[in-house]
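Lab notebook, bench 4. We co-purified these components, and the gel suggests they stay together. Before we commit to crystallization screens, I want a quick structural picture of the whole thing.
Request: model the full complex, all chains together.
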Amino acid sequence: RKEVEQDPGPFNVPEGATVAFNCTYSNSASQSFFWYRQDCRKEPKLLMSVYSSGNEDGRFTAQLNRASQYISLLIRDSKLSDSATYLCVVNPSGGNNNDMRFGAGTRLTVKP
Amino acid sequence: NAGVTQTPKFQVLKTGQSMTLQCAQDMNHNSMYWYRQDPGMGLRLIYYSASEGTTDKGEVPNGYNVSRLNKREFSLRLESAAPSQTSVYFCAFRAGTNTEAFFGQGTRLTVV
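Here is the predicted assembly.
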């Protein structure tokens, strides 16, 4: 089992739709969680951190479920510019606790 | 690009050739990383450096060496390139465990 797993998609949605991605992680002692966005042939960039209480940034909402070991990202009112690959990132605990483990990414295409 | 310089952007090598990828950051952060990204695999950690003079192996270190000569620079060396090392390489850095990571623009390496 991969340490961080995501549905690769692709998710093809119309503008204005609401779309949700899930990401599961295997290490129950993982410390911190993030969503990154990666445009085609570009480097990843932080979209948002994921806090235990959940957090919202405009049209984006991230949630953490420690009991079930998953995090989610909800995008409301999708825009064409939201088309990208969304990477789930987990900080595992343990000896190398400054490591970052990435999911393979979920590809989103928003269509007119 | 968020205070990081990664070179080269593109490289084609013949099997058995060597090369060094360079990464420099001007944000005075301690932690630096080298990742490779392959289709369907996500980013996988090659090596990591918690501070100047220290390095640790990641998930896929075989065939690579790294050097952290000072706080700014973290280089990745392929001593004898193999076709399996064809990939996109990203360097990254961040201040600490729960902080945003910044990525270089990537190096597209092809080994023929």
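Residues 69 and 110 of chain B are 27 Å apart (CA to CA). Worth comparing against the SEC data before the next meeting. The mean pLDDT of chain B is 93.
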